[in-house]
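tool=predict chain=A
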Amino acid sequence: MVTDQRALLARFDRIGRSLENIALVSLLGLMMVLAVGQIVLREIFNSGIIWADELLKLAVLWLAMIAAIAACRENRHIRIDALSHLLPTHFIRVTRVIVDLFAAAVCCAIAWQTYRYLQLEIEFQDTVLIDTPAWIAHAIVPLAFVLTGYRFVIGALKQAFGTDEEIDAGWVP
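tool=predict ok
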């Protein structure tokens, strides 16, 4: 039963990794093509796409949010770990579990507040990119914080219940 659950979670993890990687590469490619296109249009044709600059700003937001999820997935987020040089291995694992759970709670709180902000955007009918509802463009923020919080919880579970070999091999509970 436990191995079935681990296999299922590992499969979801692989799907999530693939979707994150596809989104990151696609967004970066879109940004490069759009930015270079804008430069060419402005310099050579004295023209440009009206909504391109705003789309680039939104693409940077989306790229940053998805990259934060991916960084948390790879345990490459910013971590101040001065204690890891002073404490024994067992205590390091305990502190990392606590820190990851705290980070997950903070991510969930931020997700909730950004969701509330989206509700205001819906209520006031804010728009971006000429006539697109702003909440659609900004929906990545609460979603990214929920997924980052999920990744922190997974990291805490790995630290709490995994063996050292499983943690080093990237075991997913």
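The helical segments are 2-45, 52-73, 89-124, 134-138, 140-161, 164-168. The chain has one domain: 2-168.
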